[in-house]
Structures are given as C-alpha cells and as structure tokens.
User: What shape does this take?
Amino acid sequence: MGFKWVAFDVYATLIDREQGATIAFDKIAKRNGIRVDGYILFEEWHNEVIRIYRSNIDFIGWKEAGRVAIGKLFKKFNVEGEIDDIGILYESFKDWRPYDDVKPVLEELKERGYKLAVVTNMDTDLFFKTKIDVDLDLVVTSEMAKAYKPNPKIFEYAIEEMNCDKSELLLAGTSPWADIQGAKISGLKIAWINRKKMRERWMKLNAWDPIPDYEFEDLYGLLKVLHRRVNQQSA
Amino acid sequence: MGFKWVAFDVYATLIDREQGATIAFDKIAKRNGIRVDGYILFEEWHNEVIRIYRSNIDFIGWKEAGRVAIGKLFKKFNVEGEIDDIGILYESFKDWRPYDDVKPVLEELKERGYKLAVVTNMDTDLFFKTKIDVDLDLVVTSEMAKAYKPNPKIFEYAIEEMNCDKSELLLAGTSPWADIQGAKISGLKIAWINRKKMRERWMKLNAWDPIPDYEFEDLYGLLKVLHRRVNQQSA
Assistant: This one.
C-alpha cells in the first residue's frame, strides 16, 4: 500500500454534525413556530441544500443554497419564517465538536508519516470556523474547487495541490453518494467511516452502489491499514 | 433552448430490458436449478454487475463483470452453476425490442433538426446486436470511453465526438444514479424518462438527489420541449 496522504471528509466524519445542528435547528424551529424536533428539521433542510447544489449546473455556494433551502422549508411547514435565521446555524459552526477519535487517530497518522488533508463540501469561511484541533497539511473546500463531491473536479483539485499520484491518496468519508461514489469515479480508494450511532438516513448502500475498499465504525480502523511509512524520512 | 444533440441512454430508456432479460434469465434459472422468477434473478445479477464495475478502479468490461456476477449469484443460491450460461443473456440482445415510442419520437426529432446519439454503459458488440431501428448520428459505449456513467469521462468523450458545447446536448435517460447524477456532475441538462410501468427497484430519487431538468413518462414528452430547430439548415 503506497498511501502518502489521507484526506478526510469533515462533517459527520470528523465533526459531530448531529449535535451541532440539532441545537441550532431547535432554536430556528422555536423562533419560527415549527413544532418539530431540531434534528429532523435539520435533516430535511440539509437534504434540500444538497439537492440544490447537485441540481444546479453552475456552482452555487453552500450558504447561498442554505438560504434557498430554508425558504422551501418554511413554505413546506406553512410558516412565515425569517430566512436570516439560517445564520444561527452558520454561527454555530464554531461550537461544533470533533468526535473523540479525531485527535488521537490523526496525530498518530502524522506520527506514522502521513500527510493529512480535508476535502469538504463546504464554504471556506464556515470550514475555518470549525475547530478540528489537529494540524492539517491541506484544506480543500468545494468553494475553492468550485465543485462539490462526488464531482471528480474537487478530487483532481486536491491531487494537484498534494502533488501526488491518485494511488497515493486514501479518502476517508461517511457519505455514500459524495465520498464513496465520488472516490470511485475519481479513481481513488475509499475507507468508509460508517459511524453506526448516527441518525442520518442517507448512510445506506444500495445493492448497485460501489463497495468501499475499507469499512470502519470509527477512525481507529484506519490505524489497522495505515502502518508506519517505511520511507517517511525521504518522503 | 439551444440544444442541437439529444443523447439517449439505451437499456430501459429505448429498449425493453425487462422483457428481454426475463426470458433469458428464466432459461438460466431453469438450467441451473434455481427456482426464482427470471426477472427477479436478472435484477439481482444486474445489481451485482453494476456494483462490480462501479467498485473497480480500473475499467472492467460489461461482459466480464457479468461473468463475475453470475458466479456470485450461483454462490448466493447455493448451486453449482454453469458460468458460460450467462452467454444466453448476451445472445438474447438481438431479440430485445425497442419501446413503441422510440421510432416515432426519434424520427420526429431528426425531422425537427436534432442530431441523435446514444450513450450507454455497455460493451460495444452487445450494443450493436440490439435493434433500435433508427439512424443514429453517434454511438458512445462505456467500452469506447473506458468509463461508465456517471463518470464525466464518458460524457466528455461524447461531447468531443459531437464537437459541440455542453449546453447544446440534452441527455435523456432512466437511471437516477447513472443518467441524472452523471448528467449533473458533467454540467449537462437531463430529461428523466421515468417509465412508470417498469419493475426496476432502483428508479427512485432520494430527497438529496439532484432534480432532473425534465421528467417524462415516455419519450413523447421530449417533443413538448424540443421544438423545430430554427437554424437547422445552417447547423
């Protein structure tokens, strides 16, 4: 295995999106008179955000898609909502927390000689509000690449920045459609971080979906396949 | 709308795959002692074929993936099957029939000044066994492009052959993951031919999937949006 780089998806892979988003959407629901659990509401909104940026032929920013999506959500729940309230979610990014396995596993991978990156379907400013607490060698956001996963353009952008061969990058991510499918049509190997405790309804593989190269319940699984790099001095 | 080309997915969009495959898989089931409806068996096999070619980083031919898939199917049903019997399906391609709307709609589109293509996730020889009965201006198979939809490589190959701009091509297809998702990450417009009578279980959109630009129950819907081309003489 000749991996030199490990690139991580961020939200739901490194960061507990569920906890962060539930608190924000509980507030948004309350302020706008929607009597639905914050997490359920977040999931409805998030599906719509994804649908918007995947349907548009021209690139649309994540926050911009989010504003359109909250408008649709208010319409669906038949309330006169305040579009700007979606800012409550965006502001909350600074409070979202990494999962407990992030710091120990990523630091161990650095120790073992791997370079670490993130490749995220996110606006750049919101990503940089998020505290990951590990030194990264590269950050790639959809806003930088002007493309969202699973579009190979974002992975090609990353590979170019890494100045490495595709075979030297392992992607670690959670989303079947963005990370697994994206990696496969981009010619990359993928470790599926399938955190069983998550409530997300979209984390399922259909019988015709590509099979990930590895599947782990948390990031510790990566340590089983990413051993100390022999030539790390000369890398 | 500046479309000059219409590119069709083939199997399940132009060709009644259900009828053709059921007959062949009824035979394969009988010869190998599997007591399951031919169509159900075909669907299981076909899911596996797709999973194989989507999981492989290197390009693998459709017939080759099909041989691996039939081996897995025999194993699943716990029978000592004859791998070569998958040839019964491949031979049957010559008997698969186009849907009734294919000839009238495609000929009307030619009459209206559009160039017609197919873009299919299929080996070239099997595609050319299939009788479509309409003159096509271009055929693109995954074997030619060395990539399967939804990989943008196959659409880029098609666009190059068409010598046109992306905005001048309308894709018409049935598969959410191959055609709708493939079109969208390739920057193409897509008409979803969602033939309601089909038994396929994979023809569903998730809440986070891209929305097709058009959705029609059959090919006649295309005639509503593809009017006579004004400059067809000079095209």
